[in-house]
Amino acid sequence: MKKIHEIFLASGFTLIELLTVVAIIGILTSVVLMNLNIARERGRDAQRIGNVNQIQNAIALYQNDNGGVPPGDSGVEYVNGNPEWIPGLVPKYMSSVPSDPIDVGEHKFHYSRQGNDYEVISFLEQHGNDAACGDGGSSCQYYEKASGQFLALVNPGASGWRFASSTEIVDSSAPIDVQPAGSLPAPTELKVGFGIGSSVSSWVKISESLNFMFDIDSLSNVSAFRLYQKKPQDSTFNLVGEFSDPSAVTTCSTKRTYGTWVLTSLGGGPTGCPGSRWSLSRTSSQPVSSYTVGDYLYYVTAIDSSGAEGPATPISTSTLIGTFPIQTPITFEPSDSLNPTFRWQPASGWSEALSYWVMVAPTDGSSSKRTLTAVTSAGPEISKVYDSAALIPNKEYSVWIYGRSHNASQTEDQASFASEVVTFIAPSAAQ
User: Fold this and answer.
1) CATH 2.60.40.10 domain span(s) along the chain
2) Is the pTM of this model over 0.70?
């Protein structure tokens, strides 16, 4: 029995062994916590870099529309203190101007302007006091809109940074995902609008279509066109399509597809396609119910061979007003007339008059649709008497209605759609 007891005692751990194990566990825990903190810091830095990029894009769009950068006293440093701390950007260009993820001490976003030059800077945690827009050390790169270059800002102050007059050109490979504006011209004449399907089965679906122009003499220097969109529910613009090598679109039937979007050439060149006129559209129509009521904003840019993004088109807006029901039953006056009357009420909350089109086609698809002469009215109730080709007696037809209005340049487009297709049977021919 004594030997067995000694064996059990001999199999235990000594105090030194236990302390060694505890020390190893402590070291491993410290390493894990340190790596976790580093990962968190990198995550916050990535957010800062992305936010600086969003702010720069919003300022570029603001400048395109207003001919200058957001207001402020020249040379005065503005530090974020509320969600709208750079005036003029909210809500058209972004839903709110972001603040630093920590937002204390030196970790603030900074904005300053000098004429049409501006700086937006944030400090990273992984690089001490290096700015998110900078190249480290005692200098900081910032995006200077007027020249499209990254200039050196020497010796930022302890509280952040200060305006400097240095014109030293530094390496443009800044650690933010922003490139200086290239030498390409901006695309122009961006026209937008919600479209409709061509058949009964697709009438309750929306198609998005855009047209723009681009200088054909500069097309050979374009590596891609980019399309950005901001939906009503989005806080900022998102890249929805990048269409590579447009100069290689040598026939008008050639397409460049990205996700659910497609780019085609509309000609306008000396040999047809490619030319100066381009079309962007969804590859398939989407149900009306999948669209949120509100403004859909778009802009287009061109990318040069170095990857630099050129200036953007001014923002164009398609507004979805909402849907409305077609009032049923369809009325025939007199009862045996082959010219029915359709009635509907415009979407609520909208006062501007739209031009409404009523479309009628045999439900079985045996003949093409008939689009009635447009009627313009704001309601409260609208009616339209059938005025197209004669209906076939005793045949079932489907009817759908949509309204649309836009300005002369088609940079602002409003649309409203019937919520469903309604059917009716044409009466027997009048005697």
Assistant:
1) 188-314, 322-425
2) no
- Token duo for residue 247: 């100069």
The predicted-structure confidence for 185-201, as pLDDT tens digits, reads as follows: 999 999 999 887 777 88
Query: How far apart (Å, rounded) are the C-alpha atoms in residues 153 and 134?
Result: 9
SS3 138: coil
* Class of the CATH-defined domain 322-425: mainly beta
Chain-centroid distance of CA 146 in Å reads 25
Selection from 427, 405, 419, 424 nearest residue 326 by Cα:
419
Nearest-angstrom CA–CA distance, 244 and 183: 18
- Sequence-distant (6+) residues with CB within 8 A of 33 are none
In DSSP terms, which residues pair with 151 in a beta bridge? 142, 169
What span, in angstroms and rounded, lies between the C-alpha atoms of 343 and 327?
A: 5
**Span 188-314 CATH architecture:** Sandwich (2.60)
Give CA 95 to chain center in angstroms.
12
Q: Report the alpha-carbon distance of residue 240 to residue 41 in Å, rounded.
A: 29
